[in-house]
Amino acid sequence: MSHSATIFSKKSSDKAGDLSHRKKINFNIGRYNDAVPKGKSQFEQLNLARERAKNTKWRAIETLDQQLEEFEMQFSKRGGKVIWAENSEQAIAEILKICDQKNCKTLVKSKSMVTEEIHLNDALSKHGIDSIETDLGEYIQQLDGEAPYHIVTPAMHKSKEDVARLFAEKLGTPPNLDPGELTLVARNILRKKYVEAEVGVTGANFIISDIGAVAVTENEGNARLSASFPKTHIVVVGIEKVIPSVNDLALFWPLLSTFGTGQQMTVYNTLFCGPRQPNETDGPEEMIVILLDNGRTSILQNPKQRESLYCIRCGACLNACPVYKNIGGHSYGATYSGPIGSVITPHLQGMEEFKHLSHASSLCGNCTEVCAVKINLHELLLDNRAEAVDEGLTTFPERMAWKAWKLSALNRRLMNFGNGNLKNKMVNSIFKSWTRNRSDLNFSAQTFNQQWKARYK
Q: What domains lie within the chain, and their CATH numbers?
């Protein structure tokens, strides 16, 4: 068992039995489930909208090289700069180089999963740069020293009482503040940071090739402030986030908001088209987009797994997954959790280390059912399992167990042998890895074949 699998097993077992955690998650996901049907009501033909979005992403991914080159050309025309980063080390090196040129001591950062993927905050801290998360949920998690719990709602696992206690401990506020008061405390602190910061960093929900723009969706306005107050704006974005045309936003923005939070449209939807132009009064003096690969082209070259690159990071599959709702986001031990995380993490970070995530699923298909762009997530999880076997990433006992099962399944006498107690003893005593987190299996005294013969002679 890999180190990551060992950690996953322990964390998931602990969280599955944590009733307080389950109560908080069920409450927050329950509110999400109440809101989503209202958001979906804006679509006259929701299934058709999802199908069109999938087809658009298919076209973008199938022509990814052309789309990215078109984006770079259009973005560069307005004075923007594009940097291609093959991996997280290259991306961090480029960001540190920019920060060094700007003599950056304080950096403000909006919510971005891809910067979590490359562990940007840790890298900046090691070089003496104060990186401040400006999204409220991310700020809460940063105060607590935790990674985001959820793709869309980073502090979903915390109650308002948990946040009040955290602010009291870290910021010295009264321990009984309500959510509105806690928000004002965070706002007062963060507003000062926007003015101090030399560099602002954002992610991107979409990059648009035909006009060379970056689209950012948010509910707090912190991304706009992070991009416009500092003189330098850096965008870190995965290469799969491209869409062909600005006209596609009329479909993708409502889909993202509905499936992400249940809103018809998020509060702030912004297009960043480059640095401040001569006839403009605000905006950064310099804008740089870092296009990150970091394993995405390995997914691209996989004919089956390529579909996972369609993901728009709405988080709907996490909210629908019965496994995620029981073990929580931190148990996965990876940047991306839930069904989509279980699909892509083995390819981004190594199948040998993370193949266990593909088994963290009931294969109920609910993730596929709710996906905004109709990715066949449960089938991709099965494909991951098959790939792990094909690559020989299975243990000797596991291989022997399946060989024994195959041998007996193809032989009726062996199938009928040792019914009831003998089979129960073999499975429940020998295969302890199966029964460690499951109830014992109980075989009937007779197989169906034997019962049929006994009934009909």
A: 1-36+317-394 (no CATH), 42-294 (3.40.50.10420), 397-456 (no CATH)
